[in-house]
Design goal:
The complex is a heterotrimer of chains A (481), B (251) and C (438). Chain B has 251 residues and is α/β, with parallel strands linked by helices. Chain B has 9 helices and 12 strands. Chain C has 438 residues and is an alpha/beta fold. The chains are: A alpha/beta (481), B alpha/beta (251), C alpha/beta (438). The interface between A and B is medium-sized, with 24 and 28 residues. Strand 17 of chain A pairs antiparallel with strand 19 (360-369) of chain C, so a sheet runs across the interface.
Chain lengths: 481, 251, 438
């Protein structure tokens, strides 16, 4: 019987962490070890071979993985600019692949009360609660998934998991796979490229506008809750698609490192909107690389909301490759005690008359730390490019922290960039005003924070923004007084 | 029938005493006007009674329905039936009037009791019509970008929705042109009744032409120095505040 | 195959060899031992530290391949004409190749109020060692150039030392002129200003080359404003277009004191300017201003740090760059608000006016905030001249070039007009104007 290893050299006190609060040494919280389905801990060429074999991959993918492993090993941790906390990741103690059916088992009684309460407050359906809490390995709505798949299949949309995508449709996916985010882009994209599993591959044919957002998938497929998702979405000329991942409920994972790679390709005139809401448990390192390429007159919009985790590093980017391409990042981050949200955006302008827009709002509660990092790059000989960036940070408590580190590089006299950032706290007069109307200080604070992100929250689909509001209410409890 | 009793109230901001022993009783159904020159402690009185943390009550008591409210937080006092119409209402970005008022009404319900949304909106729209507030306003952020008149009407709207027992109205006429003043005053007059006691703080007589007070008090240097009926306000208007200053500065 | 060279790695000390340092020490042997010991320690630090590398965050976007320290020498002072910078002054000091001109006593020439000291660092080391020890390069190097700051400290010779005692107010500026003369001349200008409680002083540093040759300038200034003091500092950097220039500023602002600094950069091939303001007590205010006219292939690399160490402090930074030709600018600024510095009011703004298709502007405006009751904002823009404004001027008969020049001056005026002194305003204006007539 294998234990669930602790990834971090200094684990946080068990009482403070909902996941580590579960007694992991208990007998029924264990892996049913069968060699054939378990790559063990640690990472080497054999791990990569193992994953590739289980997935019955073509030789080129296996080779791709091996190359990535070498790059991963050769790259240093980016701590010359990023937080030193990264050094606490012990790669030798991570389990890089668990196949279906090998998920840990735990009974509903073992799920801590505060987590159950959170589900209740968020109004998560009963069935999903069990899945999210790790009680059930799979959420039983295969039918719903097939349904969506069938509907979009009629339009010629391919909507499969990454393994199937590479195996069944190499002619479509190989061309773009690993091209938007090269393996060596950063240490964690290399790691993902070596050991990826799960995630979605989507192809939307020319001119097809997918009416409903593709989202249910992420609530039903356990593999997508894995550590190393790989997603590739291609919208062919004039196509339109919205994709959603995650949900506001806390995700309980037995692993403490999550490192996804998401690549988007919007061909001429296409539109892709990618919506993420993540709420990781407090022990998770969430190190994600997300980038899209927008061709002529195409549009890519990332809407990204990060709550929870120990450390999230995520800077969704758009390479504006074709004339008049548009890129946008809307980002909300909330960092509570013991959390560091290091998020931002990258806009790489590579053609004339391209425009990009970044709006980032962060909230730091208690000793939480939020960091904005941004890159805006407009190289030589381009004209008519525009970028507008706004970042606003709200600090709730006197010991909350926020940092802003944008990097803006512009060449030539025919482009326009503007960056503005502000830091503020909740106005005391405003809180008194609301208290005078009978709201408690906590309720007043929640309203003020929800007001702060309101203009961004409105861009989320209705159900997400409602959940988001409830979640902020929860997070703000105990932040005052 | 209830009363708001202010007993020998002393209020300080930091080390500085502003209100210096003020007593006043307001019964349900009465409208009291407190007039006085600038800097005499009128606004301080209102904010201190409402429980603003910047104001320290160093002596005296405030009773509502026979119970002292001084140990209550601002929100508890509000839920107990005290309303302050602010001279300068705060702007609350991103929070719509509808959501804000809904949260405030919900806060007054017993735990576990859910607000009847249909009835709430019906009531809200009725009050808005009364105050000639465009319904589109409900979607706008509280006070953000409002004109002076809009802010004050929004205060009266909240007063109407929250149905307080006692209302402290701080310079409600400031920033209002004559049309806006008339609308606000009409709004207040319709809310007048046997269950509401009003303390109106004003510098000028003109508000009292529209909201006729039952009692008028003159405040100077942190105390009430003269009380009377409506005619006192007119006398004050005719003679000016210098009259008060001269008469009481020595005292 | 060619024979292997001894070392392909670039020398980290270049011309500043132990031999050169020994000969420099010999030339200043009359100075006190503690001063010489500090120089020795600084030299060792300089030699031990590596040159910047591409992955250094504090050198992001900088061209580090052109930072070679080879080809420079300490040249004897030559006769050089003092450049025209016409402002009425309270006192003046001129240095040519690190040495004070004629060594004449400032006091003899200027009628300074009692207690005011204007002398060379060498004199101060002998006569005012405690003041010098307390203030000369006493602040940490936090902006990436520890190596070059150590080089400065090792080779610095006759800098300016200015001390204004409690309650004394000087109305006219003190002008310090630093001249580099001759091919490869290495200069290490230094200006140290101590404004004691409730005093008032304006100091101007003028950096010029006597000829167009390639020189090396590695200068520093220390500004200290005591309780309630008002210190105004203006620096005009007009080195030759072939010069490699480093300049390090440290500003310490005490309770209720106010420091206003304005740096104008027009010269050098590559110029790095680092500015650190420490707001150490309530009421402290630092206003940090800079103007750059970047032409040809010049690179201006400005790094700033505003540290709020006490509550109720204020800082206001405005850096404006006008970029022409293939010029490149880097602005990297950081505001740090310490955990107990509540009620901080900090502002930081970088505006780039793009005047050519090939110019490159890089902005890295940063914030690190650890207190919640603060007002901190920053902004950065890069844009061209407003075509509507340009057209408006043209429609009045003004040629495009002239219109652009006028509008560029308008762009700068917001910064220059913050100077109280009109003659200083006009003198800086002339320096800028001269750039456009070239």
């Amino acid at each position: 019987m294998a234990n669930i290893e602790t990834l971090v050299s200094e684990p946080e006190p068990a009482t403070e962490n909902p996941v580590s609060g579960i007694d992991q040494s208990r007998g029924d919280f264990s892996y049913d070890v069968k060699y054939a389905f378990d790559a063990g801990t640690g990472l080497n060429a054999a791990t990569v071979d193992y994953i590739s074999s289980v997935k019955k991959e073509a030789p080129w993918i296996r080779e791709f993985r091996h190359k990535a492993l070498k790059i991963f090993e050769s790259k240093p941790m980016p701590t010359h600019w990023a937080t030193k906390d990264l050094e606490n990741i012990d790669f030798s103690k991570i389990r890089y692949y668990l196949s279906q059916g090998q998920k840990p088992k735990r009974t509903w009684d073992e799920v801590p009360d505060d987590i159950k309460k959170t589900f209740e407050r968020l109004g998560i359906p009963e069935q999903e609660r069990k899945f999210l809490a790790g009680v059930e390995a799979q959420f039983d709505s295969e039918a719903a998934y097939s349904n969506i798949k069938d509907i979009v299949a009629k339009q010629g949309v391919i909507f499969v998991n990454s393994t199937e995508g590479l195996r069944e449709h190499p002619e479509i996916f190989r061309k773009f796979f690993g091209k938007v985010i090269p393996t060596g882009d950063n240490k964690f994209s290399a790691l993902n490229s070596a050991v990826f599993s799960g995630g979605s591959f989507i192809y939307v044919p020319k001119g097809v506008k997918v009416a409903q957002p593709l989202q249910a998938y992420f609530r039903i497929n356990a593999e997508n809750f894995g550590q190393f998702e790989r997603t590739l979405i291609i919208a062919d000329e004039g196509a339109e698609v919205t994709y959603m991942e995650g949900c506001t409920a806390p995700k309980f994972s037995t692993s403490t490192l999550h490192s996804a790679v998401v690549e988007l390709v919007a061909l001429k005139g296409a539109k892709i909107q990618y919506i993420t809401v993540q709420n990781w448990a407090n022990n998770v390192f969430n190190l994600v690389t997300k980038r899209g390429v927008a061709h002529e007159e195409a549009e890519i919009k990332w809407i990204d909301c990060n709550i929870g985790s120990r450390l999230t590093m995520k800077y969704p980017g758009v390479v504006l490759k074709g004339r008049k391409a548009r890129g946008e990042v809307i980002s909300i981050a909330l960092a509570n005690d013991g959390q560091h949200q290091d998020t931002g955006a990258k806009m790489i302008h590579a053609a004339d008359e391209t425009t990009s827009n970044i709006v980032a709002k962060s909230i730091s509660v208690g000793q939480g730390r939020s960091t904005y990092r941004g890159v805006v790059h407009i190289p030589k000989h381009l004209k008519g490019c525009k970028n507008n960036t706004e970042c606003d940070a709200l600090l709730i408590n006197s010991n909350s922290r926020t940092d802003t580190y944008p990097a803006i590089s512009v060449r030539g006299d025919r482009n326009y960039v503007q960056h503005e950032a502000s830091v503020s706290r909740v106005n005391e007069e405003m809180i008194f005003y609301m208290q005078q109307r009978g709201l408690t200080e906590g309720q007043a604070m929640s309203l003020a924070v929800n007001g702060f992100i309101n203009d961004l929250a409105r861009q989320f689909p209705m159900e997400y923004s409602v959940e988001l509001k409830r979640l902020i209410d929860l997070e703000m409890e105990g932040s005052v007084g | 029938m209830s009363s708001l009793v202010i007993q020998d109230l002393h209020v300080a901001i930091g080390e500085k005493e502003i209100v210096k022993g003020l007593s006043l009783t307001i019964n349900s159904g009465e409208v009291h006007a407190v007039m006085g020159p600038n800097g005499t402690g009128k606004s301080t009185l209102a904010k201190a009674i409402a429980g603003h943390p910047d104001y320290t009550i160093t002596q005296g008591d405030v009773l509502m329905g026979g119970e002292s409210i001084l140990n209550q937080e601002a929100d508890e006092r509000a839920r107990a039936g005290l309303f302050l119409a602010f001279q300068y209402p705060s702007e609350i970005p991103g929070v719509s009037i509808a959501n804000f008022l809904r949260a405030a009404v919900q806060a007054r319900l017993a735990e576990g009791e859910e607000l009847d949304a249909t009835a709430y909106y019906k009531r809200l729209y009725a009050k808005m019509d009364l105050l000639k507030i465009d319904r589109k306003f409900t979607a706008r952020s509280v006070n953000e970008g409002f004109s002076g008149g809009e802010k004050k009407r929004c205060e009266i709207l909240q007063m109407a929705m929250l149905e307080p027992q006692f209302s402290l109205m701080d310079e409600t006429d400031s920033g209002l042109d004559i049309d806006a003043l008339r609308i606000v005053a009409e709004g207040v007059n319709t809310l007048r009744g046997p269950n509401l006691g009003i303390l109106m703080i004003t510098h000028y007589q003109r508000l009292l032409d529209y909201i006729i007070p039952d009692f008028v008090h003159v405040m100077y240097d942190g105390r009430i120095v003269k009380s009377g009926d409506k005619s006192l306000a007119l006398e004050l208007e005719a003679k000016g505040y210098d009259w008060v200053k001269k008469e009481f500065a020595a005292a | 195959m060619s024979a292997p060279t001894l070392s392909t790695a670039r020398s980290t000390i270049g011309s500043f060899t132990p031999d050169l340092f020994a000969s420099h020490l010999a030339s200043v042997a009359e100075l006190p031992a503690w001063w010489l010991e500090r120089k020795q320690a600084a030299y060792e630090k300089f030699a031990a530290l590596p040159l910047p590398v591409r992955t250094d965050e504090s050198w992001r976007f900088s061209n580090i391949s052109t930072l070679s320290l080879d080809g420079y020498a300490l040249r004897l002072p030559e006769k050089a004409t003092t450049p025209a910078f016409s402002i009425p002054t309270a006192a003046e000091l001129t240095f040519v190749n690190n040495v004070a001109v004629a060594g004449d006593s400032v006091r003899a020439r200027f009628n300074l109020p009692s207690g005011v000291i204007v002398c060379t660092l060498g004199e101060a080391a002998v006569k005012h060692p405690e003041l010098l020890k307390a203030h000369f390069m006493a602040q940490p190097q936090k902006l990436g150039s520890e190596k070059f700051a150590s080089l400065h400290q090792a080779f610095v010779r006759d800098g300016a030392f200015i001390y204004v005692p409690r309650g004394v107010e000087l109305t006219a500026p003190i002008l310090i002129t630093h001249i580099a003369s001759g091919e490869g001349s290495a200069v290490f200008p230094h200006t140290l200003v101590i404004a004691e409680e409730n005093s008032k002083v304006t100091v101007v540093d003028l950096f010029v080359s006597a000829d167009a040759s390639a020189q090396f300038a590695c200068g520093a200034n220390d500004l200290y404003a005591g309780h309630g003091a008002q210190l105004t500092y203006a620096g005009a950097q007009v080195w030759s277009r072939e010069t490699l220039s480093f300049q390090f500023n440290s500003t310490v602002v005490r309770r209720d004191a106010r420091v206003q600094s304005l740096n104008l950069h027009v010269g050098a091939r590559q110029a790095r300017h680092e500015s650190l303001s420490q707001l150490q007590a309530p009421g402290a205010f630092s206003e940090m201003l800079a103007l750059t006219v970047a032409s040809l292939k010049q690179e201006f690399d400005q790094r700033t740090l505003q540290i709020h160490q006490a509550p109720n402090t204020k800082s206001d930074l405005l850096y404006k760059n006008a970029l022409r030709d293939q010029a490149k600018t880097i602005f990297s600024g950081l505001i740090i608000v310490d955990a107990d510095a509540q009620k901080t009011d900090a502002y930081q703004s970088n505006r780039n006016l793009m005047l050519s298709e090939e110019a490159e502007a890089n902005s890295l405006p940063g914030l690190e905030i650890q207190a919640n009751d603060v007002r901190c904002t920053h902004g950065a823009t890069s844009s061209r001249i407003d075509p509507e404004q340009e057209f408006y001027l043209q429609s009045r008969g003004i040629a495009k070039e002239m219109a652009d020049e006028l509008l560029t001056f308008g762009f700068f005026e917001e910064v220059v007009s913050r100077l109280e002194s009109e003659p200083l305003h006009d003198a800086l204006h002339s320096v800028i104007k001269a750039q456009f007539s070239k």
